[in-house]
Amino acid sequence: MSNKTQKTALITGINGQDGSYLAELLLSKGYRVAGIVRRSSTETQQRIEHIRSKIEIYQADLLDQSSLAKVLADVQPDEVYNLAAMSFVPTSWQQPVLTAEFTAVGVTRMLEALRQSCPTAKFYQASSSEMYGKVLEVPQSENTPFYPRSPYGVAKAYGHYITVNYRESYSLFACSGILFNHESPRRGLEFVTRKITDAVAKIKLGLQSELRLGNLDARRDWGFAGDYVRAMWLMLQQDTADDFVIGTGETHTVREFVEIAFNHVGLDHQKYVVVDPKFYRPAEVDLLLGNPTKAMKTLGWKPDVSFNQLVTMMVDADLKLHAQTSKENLSKVA
Ligand code: G4F
Q1: Distance, CA 151 to ligand 1 centroid (Å)?
Q2: Which of 199, 245, 248, 309 could form a disulfide with 211 if both were Cys (CB 3.0 to 4.6 A apart)?
Q3: Whether residue 76 is found in the same domain as residue 91
Q4: 320 and 259, same domain (yes or no)
Q5: For ligand 1, what atom is nearest to the CA of residue 150?
Q6: Which residues contact 180 (CB under 8 A, 6 or more apart)?
């Protein structure tokens, strides 16, 4: 039960990387935290297991308007963070319509539900640097035009504009955070950073022999997810709703990520990395570099974790994870 001074936050996608870090942050600030998850026969809630007793979980679906309206009416949140989406870019070419349903129209469903059930709640939309795609300016700021290069990027651009439109049409407190790539030990294994650190750990422990990757020349502005959820929260603490770019202001190639990760465990990446055209995309985003000046000035936000720290943190976490798993497997055999 909430008391009068305690704020309530509702997070869609609470069992994702960002949702789990945001839930931890909000709990540490004394919030009542509720989260929306989709019903699934296989879904695990691994990332929120450690805080499961402290949060409320509701089943609803971005595809189902009435389920969202019901949860918003029941929870009566002060802040809503819409983090749920189909977020893996390659899948968006395989399932373009479903991607649009979740990642684009799903945002309208959330905004409509909020407008009807709790119009004074503050709303955060997870926009993405993928909207810049084939970039029209370097670095990318809030004023850089979008040129998305995937059905995912197109869907995120829709979600971004509908958030701006609901702010302007209905005076909702609706903000959009244009987040550049943000990673952590909780990142899904399909994304390139975690795929690399997972493989480096397994290769080091003798559990894997090679790492197959696609385009090593792609450049990304990679930061730490824990730093980025702080920016989400800060956006909703302002007096005026606005949109902000969140990035580090540094860009690195996939190759650099690979080199640092292998060097960290004393291995030569050239002996293990195989370039496989299977992982190339129909249209690539070659270069992303954020300009977070506005967020730094207005929100007082800055990233705390450097690129090197991020890579080594992820490698160390995967080494620990796989060393533990192999130990458990060995003890089962013995
Ligand atoms: O790690 P990625 O799959 O992330 P991507 O496509 O940049 O998208 C991520 O960041 C966005 C923010 O800009 C989010 F909106 C989105 O939801 C997601 O979190 O790929 C990064 C780069 C790409 O250029 C890709 O071509 O790595 C390159 N890459 C090279 N080999 C690979 C691989 N990517 C993956 N996933 N797997 C590879 O083997």
Answers
A1: 14
A2: 199
A3: yes
A4: yes
A5: 6
A6: 129, 220, 221, 222, 223, 245, 246, 247, 248, 288, 290
Range of the domain at 85: 8-183+224-246
Can you give the pTM of this predicted structure?
A: 0.97
Closest residue by Cα to atom 12, ligand 1, is 181
Quick one: 178 and 45 in the same domain?
A: yes
| Nearest residue to 142 via CA among 125, 129, 155 | 129
Structural domain includes residue 291: no
Spatial distance between the Cα atoms of 20 and 129, rounded to a whole number of angstroms: 21
Rounded to whole angstroms, the Cα distance separating 162 from 184 reads 29
Assigned token pair, 25: 């942050």
- Ligand 1, atom 4, lies closest to the CA of 191
Q: Is 195 in the pocket of ligand 1 (CB under 6 A)?
A: yes
Kindly state whether residues 256 and 147 are assigned to the same domain.
Answer: no
Count of structural domains, the chain: 2
Residues with catalytic function: 128, 130, 152
pLDDT per residue rounded down to tens, the chain (334 residues):
556 699 999 999 999 999 999 999 999 999 999 999 998 866 678 999 999 999 999 999 999 999 999 999 999 999 999 999 999 999 999 999 999 999 999 999 999 999 999 999 999 999 999 999 999 999 999 999 999 999 999 999 999 999 999 999 999 999 999 999 999 999 999 999 999 999 999 999 999 999 999 999 999 999 999 999 999 999 999 999 999 999 999 999 999 999 999 999 999 999 999 999 999 999 999 999 999 999 999 999 999 999 999 999 999 999 999 998 887 777 777 6
Mark whether 198 and 240 lie in a shared domain. no
CATH number at residue 196: 3.90.25.10
